[in-house]
Write a structure and sequence with these properties.
5-stranded antiparallel sheet, 7 strands, about 20% helix
């Protein structure tokens, strides 16, 4: 079992400051309404605290179906997205690729 809040905070360690975020909890294959947690642009300290407290739940990040979906936008222009393989989940840091010399 993993805690969504703890996992998120660990993923953000040594990264740029969080700009905004959207995380949805639930399996992709069901048709049920899924809770979505949002941290909007220009958020306050209280907004961040509320967002993190909403994510303070345990879920199975191991074998099985993916349970968390989302994107975390960072202030340096990079972002974190959910990675998944065979039900195992993680936050993946994404950056824009370097422009190759043949395009300069």
């Amino acid at each position: 079992m993993s805690n969504a809040k703890t996992e998120l905070l660990e993923a953000l360690e040594n990264k740029a400051e969080l700009k905004c975020a959207k995380i949805t909890k639930g399996y992709s294959y069901d048709n049920e309404e899924k809770p979505t947690y949002r941290l909007k642009l220009g958020y306050s300290k209280e907004d961040l605290e509320t967002f993190l407290n909403l994510l303070n739940f345990d879920y199975d990040s191991g074998f099985g179906g993916q349970e968390l979906f989302g994107t975390l936008w960072l202030k340096d222009g990079t972002w974190l997205s959910r990675g998944e393989y065979d039900g195992s989940e993680w936050w993946e840091h994404n950056t824009l690729p370097e422009i190759t010399d043949d395009l300069i």
